[in-house]
Structures are given as structure tokens and as C-alpha cells.
Specification:
mainly beta; four-stranded mixed β-sheet; single chain; four-stranded antiparallel β-sheet
């Protein structure tokens, strides 16, 4: 609304009188309650406190920074303390999820971790098929790969420290349910090897 009467002031507060009015910054046709039209790389929208940037939007590339005014990705979250930078929380019965979805048939959908800007590990769908992998980026190795349809308890780590293959109730340090094919040598050490 172009009328100056739409603005009101009460003490130190300035506000619009009408709830359906829009405010435009650098635009005469705002389409939202607050519409900012800016190509300013130093911040189309920015919120600071006395010590740091809390929220920042780059007007050139659209990147968003939380805790930083120089985001290097579409969304960058920076936390200077030892606290977690991101928390996913829900009151729903289904639980909380963090999702990665690639619409491209050969695209990755993975979670990568880095140290000092260098990627070290990734976990997720890291190939053109739907295998779930833990990927050693630094050495280009895949130490863990899980194919879709893998049976329950294929590998089970019990709270006792026992490991089950094909069982969720291992009674020994290593409990294999099924046949075993060894290509190397089986050592019994100082223990006893039983056959049944």
C-alpha cells in the first residue's frame, strides 16, 4: 500500500497497520510479507549481534550462512564452540531424519566428513547403484558395502562384544550361522578346535 498511513509507530516499534500488506526493498512489487530484491554479495539479508553474524544471505549466488557471513556452499552452518552445529528434532512417532536425495541416476546421496577442509570419509549411496557404502575418500577405498536386500543380522555386533554372522544372538566371540569358505589358513592358537 503506497499510503504513508499504513505505517504506525508506537514507542520504538514501527509496523504496518494492515496484516496483508507487503514490504518491498529495492522492488515496487513485493510478493511476500518482506521481499528483498538484491544482487549484493555482501548480504541481501543479514542479522548480526555484537560478536558475530547470526544469519546471512548472499544476494549474488543465494548462499545462506548461519553463524558465518561467507558461506561456501548453498547452506553453511558454523559453530565456534564445541556444541553441535545442527540438531534434528521431532516430536513425531516416526523419529527425526536427515535426508540426502539425488534425482540423477548416477548422482551421489551421501554424508561426507572433513578435517581442515579436506574430505576424509563418506557414507551413503556413493555410486550409480543403490549400494550403501562407507567410503575412504583419501585412499579411494570402500571397506564396507551393503547391497539392497541384505538379510537381517548378516553382521551383528552384540553388546557382549560377540560378533554374529547370520545370527543376532552370537554365543561366542565369532558365531557363524551357515557354511564358511576359507581361502587362507585357519589358526586355532592355544585354544581348541572343535568339529561337529
Amino acid at each position: 500500500n503506497a499510503s504513508a498511513l499504513t505505517w504506525n509507530r508506537s514507542s520504538t516499534n514501527v509496523f504496518l497497520n494492515y496484516p496483508n500488506d507487503n514490504v518491498g526493498i529495492n522492488t515496487t512489487a513485493p510478493t511476500a510479507t518482506l521481499h528483498i530484491n538484491s544482487s549484493n554479495k555482501n548480504g541481501a539479508f543479514r542479522v548480526d549481534n555484537t560478536t558475530q553474524t547470526l544469519f546471512f544471505v548472499n544476494g549474488t549466488d543465494g548462499r545462506v550462512g548461519i553463524g558465518t557471513s561467507s558461506p561456501n556452499k548453498d547452506l553453511e552452518v558454523y559453530e565456534a564452540s564445541d556444541e553441535a552445529a545442527i540438531l534434528a528434532h521431532t516430536d513425531g512417532s516416526a523419529g527425526a531424519y536427515v535426508e540426502a536425495d539425488s534425482a540423477h541416476a548416477s548422482g551421489f546421496a551421501a554424508f561426507r566428513v572433513a578435517r581442515s577442509g579436506t574430505y576424509k570419509w563418506a557414507a551413503g549411496l556413493y555410486s550409480h547403484v543403490d549400494d550403501y557404502v562407507i567410503y575412504d575418500i583419501a585412499n579411494s577405498k570402500v571397506p564396507v558395502l551393503i547391497e539392497p536386500g541384505t538379510p537381517d543380522a548378516t553382521l551383528f555386533l552384540h553388546s557382549t562384544g560377540n560378533v554374529g554372522i547370520g545370527t543376532s544372538a552370537p554365543t561366542h566371540e565369532l558365531n557363524v550361522m551357515g557354511h564358511t569358505n576359507l581361502s587362507g589358513t585357519l589358526y586355532a592358537g592355544n585354544g581348541t578346535l572343535y568339529t561337529n
